[in-house]
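Hi P.,

Sorry for the delay on this. The queue was packed all week, but I finally got your sequence through. Input first:
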Amino acid sequence: MDPHLLRTFVAVARLASFSAAARELGYTQSAVSQHIAALESDLRTELLTRRPVAPTPAGERLLEHAGPLLLRLDAARADVLRLAAAPPGRVTVAASPLAVGPRLLSALPATGVTLRVLPPAQVPAVVAAGECDLGLVDGLAAPSDPLRLPDVAPLRVTGIGEEELAVLFPAGHPLAGRAAVRLDDLGDARWLDAPGVGLAPAVRTAPALRYDGTDLHALCALAAAGHGLALLPLPVARAARAGVAVPLESPRLVHRTELLAPGAPTGAALAVAARLTGGPS
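Then the structure:
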């Protein structure tokens, strides 16, 4: 499949419009129609209905493959261009909110660095696509187990830290006075839905409130105000100065942080990575 045709198909499906896709891609509407027709001819099946514009079952299946395929192509291009085009001495680091801690802050150089704080799900993709030189991503895992990351590109993955977990309760909650809690104790609890921060517990009921941001202080304030519980690294929960942090004792899970690097990192990125992992620079 021609990746140019595939990109056109993805744009038409996402925008549900041939004309809108043409404007976004800088093509004529006729060219977009020709791209879709050529792709359908190649695959010998209809991929889009025309009125309304929507993916057919075959088109839905192709969309499932298209995102990872196009990201892989972007990653390969970025990996090659990175070697020749990277500004010397500059490094861009993407980090999920809970990965921004003392270890990262002490590893960053005083100048020549850009830090982008992104939802955890976006970090692997921006590193793979060459938008950032390094990534720090976090999540829940069994002790010493790696995170389950999307297969976006052949990234180098290094575990750099694990922390205990805690549940952040509002003051006065019936379980706030315990020395530790189990998730089984919280089967009927309402949890904050915060995809931009991460750490969704395995047992969940309907969320109390959706928080669409990456500010940890705001998340902790919502939990302390009784809008829903939050699962956080124990040091973060204790430092929040909002609500009551109670350590999680069961199941045996940790907050794990991993460093993501492309196959051919720049010299500046290698120096930061070495400080994060404790290796030679």
